[in-house]
Amino acid sequence: MMSPLNEEEQRCLLTLARQAIASALRDAELDLTAIAAALPSRRLATAGAAFVSLHKQERLRGCVGFIASLKPLYQTVVEAARAAAFHDQRFSPLRPDEFPEVEIEVSVLSPFFTIAPENVQPGEHGLMVTLGSYRGLLLPQVAREHGWTRERFLEETCAKAGLERDAWKHGARLEAFTAIVFSEATLAAHHSAPEKK
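Above: the chain sequence. Below: its structure as tokens.
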């Protein structure tokens, strides 16, 4: 299990994701050298896999990530944020007028591990299904948000891969992972909550 990122690290990655999209909308570059020098911890400079999800009015507006990355985690988040905003083929590129309405969520992924279907825990595990050239991935929070059973989660991941829904029973490779998931909304809620004595 991964050790969770602290609030300062989470806030840094969310800020970088927003800056990455804002600079792309202005057709400007980010100064990655300056960013690297100002990181709150070395952990954000180590290689890491991550996804960035964009939501507008509580509906998905883009989600792209990297399941393995040799780049520093902060750089992975920058690239995933831009890809989610402008290169998710399910959506039109994000427009400047939409940007203020977008809420950003970051998922930092653990290493992947092979898993048997009966050991998949919806809500705890993310899942990747592979068969031949087909591959599909769903993040842990997707099953949690939809209240899916284990079987439904397996079926939906197969469907995401473009496979038959029962491909997990017929030779598809299953890999699981966990994720540290945080968003601008969760950090804002955390700050507005009363202090516990």
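The chain has two domains: 7-109+179-192, 113-177.
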